[in-house]
Structures are given as C-alpha cells and as structure tokens.
Write a structure and sequence with these properties.
The chain is mainly α and 177 residues long. It is 58% helix and 0% strand. It has helices at residues 3-22, 27-31, 41-60, 89-95, 100-120, 123-126, 144-168. The chain is globular and about 45 Å long. The protein starts with a helix and ends in a 9-residue tail after the last helix.
Length: 177
C-alpha cells in the first residue's frame, strides 16, 4: 500500500468516526456549555474542521484554507475564532453559535480537499521535508506524511473523544459504535 493510500484510509476513518459522533447533534447539544473548562460540542467540531483546513491547505500545502476562500463566511459560526497566537479561545468557544447543518457542508468540503490532496501525492512528495507547521513552538522539520499521520489525524481523533464525552454528560450516546 502506498503512503498516500494509507493516509487516505487513516483520515477517512477519523472523519467517519467524527461524523458518526456528531450525526445526531442538534443546536441544543452543540451549544451546551459544560461546567469547568471543557468546551461545547459545536465549538470543538468547528475547531477540528478549521484546524484540518488551515493546517493542511495553509501550512502543509502553502495555500489558503477553504474558510478564507470558497467557504468564507460559510463555515457555520456566528463569529470566527481568535487567531492561534491570541488569547480568548476559551471565551469564544463558550459564546460562539454553530449552525451544524452549515458546518457539516463545510466539513464535507474539507474532507474532500484532504482526500484529493492525498490522492494527488506520490510517496516521494509525501516524504519531502517541510517546515513543521508548529516550528514556532520548537518542532523540527517534518514531512507531510509524518505530520498528517502524527498530528492531523490525531487532532481529529482526540477532539472527537472530547465531543463523545460532552455528549455523554448530556445523557446522549457518544461514539457511533
């Protein structure tokens, strides 16, 4: 199996679990603010999507994310989150209103973009050294393959777990299996 196919399978599986987990999320579930420092389901979902979009299309590919181009203003949020280097994400997560139907349409586009990128890459392309998207935090250079496998897919998986837990404390089924 090629590196491209392996990464496509990995991301597809992560996306399927995420989408299965949020399939029954309505506005009330998406906006519910848990006690403590945990974040609402809707904010976590949009964070996953915008993270994948910006990290893959921006940092890895060197282009612009969909939320800044074809999906500008069509992500499903009442306000955009603060930039990663700014404070205020916790406050944003608690006040943002998420339209799950609009966010799901954005999700489909992000997933399609990820898959199309991976399908177009050779093993050699995915093995080229690039500046790590988190180099400003001291991470060494990486390859697209390593970054996608070790950071991007895990970002989806970890936050899907948070969403599952936030649904569970609301008395709902978390993971779809």
């Amino acid at each position: 199996m090629s590196t491209s196919q392996l990464l496509r399978n990995l991301m597809k599986a992560a996306h399927e679990v995420l989408e299965g987990t949020v399939a029954d999320v309505n506005t009330q579930t998406a906006q519910w603010c848990p006690p403590g420092k945990a974040h609402p389901v809707g904010a976590l979902y949009v964070h996953i999507l915008m993270g994948e979009d910006s990290l893959l299309n921006g940092a890895v590919r060197g282009g612009a994310p969909l939320f800044a181009t074809t999906f500008a203003g069509k992500v499903g949020v009442s306000e955009t989150p603060p930039a990663p280097d700014q404070d205020g994400w916790d406050e944003w997560a608690r006040r943002v209103q998420v339209d799950m139907a609009v966010a799901r349409a954005y999700a489909a586009a992000v997933y399609a973009e990820t898959d199309a990128y991976l399908a177009s890459q050779s093993d050699a392309d995915l093995g080229k050294t690039i500046k790590h998207p988190f180099a400003n935090f001291g991470f060494p250079d990486t390859t697209p393959a390593d970054f996608i496998a070790s950071v991007l897919s895990q970002h989806v998986a970890h936050h899907t777990g948070e969403i599952s837990a936030m649904k569970g404390v609301q008395g709902l089924k978390g993971y779809p299996f």
